[in-house]
Amino acid sequence: MERSAADLFFSRSVAAAAVRSIHPCHVKICDVNAIEEVDSDWSVSAGKLVSQLPAACTGPRVGYDERMRRCVAGLALLAWAFGISGCGTSNGARGEAGADSGAGTGAAPGTDAGGGATDSGIGGSVSASADSGSGGDASDGGLASGDAGGVVATGRRFPDTTSSIAVLADQLPSMNAAQTQFAATHYVGTEKQLLPVTQALRAINPNFLVLHYHLSMWQSAPAVDFLVPDVIDGGVDGVTWGNDYPTVTMNESWFWHNASNVRVASSADGKLLMNVAAAGFQTYWAESLIEQVKAGGYDAVFFDSASPALLQGECGTADPRLAGTAARDTSFTALGNATWISAWESWMGALNTTLAAEGIPLIPNTSAFVTGWDNTNYGLTAGIFAEGYAGTSFAVSDWQASTNELLALSAAEKIMILQNYLSASTDLATRLYYLGNYLLVKGKHTYLDYFAAGPMEWYPEWGIDLGAATAPVPASVSAFLTNGVYRRDFANGSVFVNPSSSPVTVSLAGTFRHVVPSGGGAVDTAGTATGVLTMTNVTSLTIGAATAEIVLH
């Protein structure tokens, strides 16, 4: 019997809804018009077909692995009856990913914040970068489409920071139009924004980066919202936050358990430790991350609380087996007789490869690399987020170890986001110390942020134009040691960093302009920032304890 176009569209729509209703299987219909009849004799109604889907796919929740198995049967039935074509699973082709996520908008890729400082030091507006990537592969943490700073799936790029200071802000707060304009033209990006906010920022700067926030080896506590909930429900509107705990909690084998077979919660904030060697966990984490990135229009994954060194402090009480150096030294049956660090490396490397194939950089929060016994390979991903880098209380030996790790990652052209916190916006010595340490290790894709009250701040020293470094980063920070301080030279000047507890005076062998910032802090509701740079001619400098100084030619 010949069916009308309206009837055909209705049946296709119902079938599409049926497939979407089993979204936990991570299957989407790309277009209802891709659903076609296999027989002009309509013998099975769309409604009846939907009713034949396995109950577990549309009814009460069951474990993810079981849903995956049962949903295959439902998909096979749909494919047989309708002839689904041109659509893939969540691991399929992503050629149209931008269509429903707001991603893929904008013009030529690349941003480059920090250049073009004005006399007030509040310059550094965003411009396009010509960086084209250098073809790194996913096996060493790069992106399949280029090096770690290559064009990602959204068409945007992590900008080249060789000759600039670039600020990638922590999660920006609610902003008015003037502050949105400021953020889009001064920061290269931010994290954890709802899609409408992201779209407003990209309407001003199409290359503005937004990172998806997700815990790494933990499940967020049930009451903590962190992702776009419609991913769970099958939609992609991206306008509210949520938590996939109701799905994850149905899969007990994904969680880490102590010797009493009890889940292990962090003593810091109640997040739940996962078993990174569990196959179901690995599959769900990868697939859900991809879907969440698409739904939010994100450019990368910021993987928080990622270091195995955290286990001793956050889980050592709930599970004494994890105390001390156990993450490095103790093998666990639950991890396939591997240590936590070894299992973490296997999982993280494989996850990076999966995400890189989708054009999504994976950027774990590795902390500041000051746990002496931690021998984790943090070079397995596209980049790292070093929270707490350059702490002013670090022992010099710890500072050296941390800086050497950052230099190695910089030399490998990894994405590096260095972030720390101020006790007050007026703490100029600490501001300069954070900036100086950033400049010591800065490479091709190195980003900075420090703030006092919140990320919506701007400091005049971020507009200093030092140009490119005169030499590549060395293998060891000791190569920078000169007359008791660590010096790195740039085309337009030099930075001097003193990590010790005593001031050091150095002769400059010539006249330089000493850069002294003043002001800076919160960006007001008019979208303006205060602060200026003052230049004073000097022939020598005294670099105080745990601070840094900058001079220009």
Which descriptors apply to this entry?
TIM Barrel, 19 strands, disordered N terminus, six-stranded antiparallel beta sheet, four-stranded parallel beta sheet, single chain, alpha/beta, 2 domains, 553 residues, globular
Characterization of the model:
The chain has two domains: 5-89, no CATH class; 138-552, TIM Barrel. It is 27% helix and 17% strand. The protein is an alpha/beta fold. The strands form six sheets. A six-stranded antiparallel β-sheet has the order 13-14-15-19-16-18. The protein has a four-stranded parallel β-sheet with strand order 1-2-5-8. The longest helix is centred in the N-terminal third of the chain and has 19 residues, at 64-82. Residues 1-140 and 142-149 have low confidence and may be disordered. The protein contains 14 helices and 19 strands.
Using the coordinates shown, work out and report the CATH topology of the largest domain.
Answer: TIM Barrel
The percentage of residues in β strands lies in 15-25%
**Class by SSE composition:** alpha/beta
Q: Do you know the CATH architecture of the largest domain?
A: Alpha-Beta Barrel
Q: Helix segment count? A: 14
Inertia-based shape: globular
